[in-house]
Amino acid sequence: MRTDPHPEPAPRRDAGLAARTAELAAESPVRAARSPWPRRLRSTGKHVGLVALAVMMIYPLIWLLVSSIKPSETIFRDVSIIPGEIDLTNYTAGWNALLHPFGHYMMNSAIVVLGSLVGNLIACSMAAYAFARLEFRGRRVWFAIMLMSIMLPIHVVIVPQYVLFSQLGWINTFLPLIVPKLLATDAFFVFLMVQFFRGIPRELDEAARLDGCGHGRIYLRIMMPLAMPALATTAIFTFIWTWNDFFSQLIFLTNPDMYTAPIALRTFLDATGQSSWGPMFAMSIVSILPIFLVFLFGQKYLVKGIATTGIK
């Protein structure tokens, strides 16, 4: 009969397993008897920390809102967020304090935002479709140049842009703020849509070609409906960035009749020290409301669009 030259390891393993099982059985009553309070305390501590961080982040906005309903002479004398006296005249005074009612400047901002929205949605989606689906010479080189343009600060290109638009006679018009959007100059949105288009199966394109569709119909009837999350993200970001834009609008718009909301808010400040803080804070709240509403109702589309484009 053949004998095993190493008969001992198996019993030793069985003995070790039995000992470990007995140890766990002995510890189980102790674990069951442990109080859940340490875990609850850790969870409570995390929530308290997050709430404290959130309060720190929104405190300036709360202070701005409270200051807008305080008398101007008490805004910096009483910096608490509990107003001792409520005065709503800042809103009426701020609305009519400038050359035109403040609604005029918000309408100017709306025109710029609408033009930028249309330009980015159409031009950036077309450029993204070309980079994602078309084969042409130098595609990778042009795509790399497009990505490099994201790194250029606005201060580098604003001077040649001003010279060009001045020669075209576009200063004090909305054209310098809208026309570049029609040329897909926002490389971030092009990149975002390229990432989304690359995630759409090419089999859909091939099936459409078998039905006789060209690139135009594929772009309009297949890509655009499927790209709604990316388009919504582009629209929300374009609205927020364009509405808050101050530098570019200050450079190209020098006529008070053409001022947008950010530039109009700047006119409440006086270099001599006679600044209308109360009305300016009140109109700041009014100008923030469109951004707040857009972000409130478009948050789910924003999150979905960023998640589906692979941008972390």
Automatic annotation (TrEMBL):
Gene3D superfamilies: MetI-like. It is found in: Cell membrane. Its main location: membrane. PROSITE patterns: ABC_TM1 (PS50928). Keywords: Cell membrane, Membrane, Transmembrane, Transmembrane helix, Transport. Residues 106-298 form the ABC transmembrane type-1 domain. It is a multi-pass membrane protein. The chain crosses the membrane at residues 48-66, 105-129, 141-165, 177-197, 218-243, 277-297. It holds the Pfam family BPD_transp_1. PANTHER family: ABC TRANSPORTER PERMEASE PROTEIN MG189-RELATED-RELATED, ABC TRANSPORTER PERMEASE PROTEIN YESQ-RELATED. Belongs to the binding-protein-dependent transport system permease family. This is Carbohydrate ABC transporter permease. It comes from Cellulomonas wangsupingiae.
